[in-house]
Design goal:
Elements: E1 2-3, E2 6-8, E3 11-12, E4 22-24, E5 29-33, E6 40-43, E7 47-52, E8 55-64, E9 68-76, E10 88-94, E11 110-121, E12 123-124, E13 137-140, E14 142-149, E15 153-155, E16 158-161, E17 177-182, E18 189-194, E19 207-218, E20 221-226, E21 229-240, E22 246-249, E23 252-254
Parallel strand pairs: 1-4, 2-5, 3-6, 4-7, 5-8, 6-8, 7-9, 8-10, 9-11, 10-13, 11-14, 12-15, 13-16, 14-17, 15-18, 16-19, 17-19, 18-20, 19-21, 20-22, 21-23
């Protein structure tokens, strides 16, 4: 495990087995930065970055062959306008060749690229002129792109492709989802997926494709899904046991 405050154009990886990852302590701030030609890379971690009431900014970064890419727990994390430069943008979450290379999870896909637990609010993705298209986040080859447990979040400018329908326990109804969000409380959480509040940039939308499920929610969520694309999925959006408001507006569904 590593305690850090800033990482720039660096590659961290495991040798014979997976390593613990980076810890951001309560109240701490971690900047993961790179440039387009030389991104910062975090490989082979059990959890690439763990935040317990801390904050992580990532831009031009690659997370590869991690069991969990980034994990946020408790409290409020970064949640300013998606038109600002801070947050998580131009970051690639992947599991190259679809399999983790090192034990104890060798041969399995990444489980979750971003895990949220008891998070009050966090924004994932955003844009910044003059090259908004170059700041898209990508999520590929994991069981879940984003898994949210009793949390609220907003998502912009991100693409989910080839989520893996993998489980040691079969059948798994939630595996292979770009987003899987569950609420085990009696209250309600918010999910804002795509353009909202008068923001009109086409780069704010998200894309879900070539997977089993785009978005799966279980429990009460105020879901606002606006101006996203769903392509080549078994199920685009599925919401179970939800007694809260759901708004699905101006989305594109093809071969779903």
């Amino acid at each position: 495990e590593l305690l850090a405050s800033s990482i720039n154009s660096t590659k961290l990886f495991g040798c014979s087995e997976m390593w613990g990852g980076i810890i951001v302590q309560s109240g701490g701030l971690l900047n993961i930065e790179g440039v387009n030609a030389r991104p910062t890379e975090i490989h082979d971690a059990l959890t690439g970055v763990y935040n317990n009431e801390g904050t992580t900014f990532a831009r031009y970064a690659i997370f590869d062959h991690n069991y969990i890419g980034m994990r946020f727990e408790n409290g409020s994390h970064f949640n300013a306008s998606p038109l600002t430069t801070e947050g998580i943008s131009a970051t690639e979450f992947r599991c190259s060749n679809g399999e983790i290379k090192l034990p104890p999870y060798a041969g399995e896909p990444s489980n979750t690229h971003i895990l949220l637990e008891n998070v009050d609010e966090i924004r994932i993705g955003g844009i910044n002129a003059p090259n908004p298209g170059g700041l898209t986040n990508s999520f590929t080859d994991a069981v879940y792109g984003i898994r949210s447990i009793n949390s609220s979040f907003s998502l912009y400018n991100s693409e989910f492709d080839r989520m893996q329908n993998f489980s040691d326990v079969h059948p798994c109804f939630t595996c292979g989802a770009g987003i899987y969000a569950e609420n085990s409380t009696s209250g309600s959480f918010e999910m804002k997926i795509g353009t909202k509040n008068g923001l009109t940039s086409t780069f704010l939308k998200n894309t879900f494709k070539n997977s089993k499920i785009g978005i799966f929610t279980k429990g009460n969520f105020v879901l606002d899904c606006d101006d996203n694309s769903f392509e080549d999925l078994v199920t685009g959006i599925r919401s179970n046991r939800n007694n809260s408001n759901i708004t699905i507006h101006d989305n594109n569904f093809e071969r779903v």
